[in-house]
Amino acid sequence: MDRLTRNWLMLIALILATVAVATQDGRIAAAGLLVLAWAKARAILGGFLHLDRAPGWLPAFLVPLALWLCVVWGLAAVR
Question: Whole-model pTM?
């Protein structure tokens, strides 16, 4: 199986996991959804945009995204 097909199937699995977690309620479900959003961003940036082949670029996008998602979760948890 080539890399593009494997990445596409991973995105389909992540979407199905998102649908399953979205039926839940609470802070744990919100954290799960944000982790799945980060994983989908990782799959898209690394697999389709090939940033995993460019040294330093993938972490340059994923670390700020992870920090932002942590802030979003924190704000949702306080609410």
Answer: 0.90
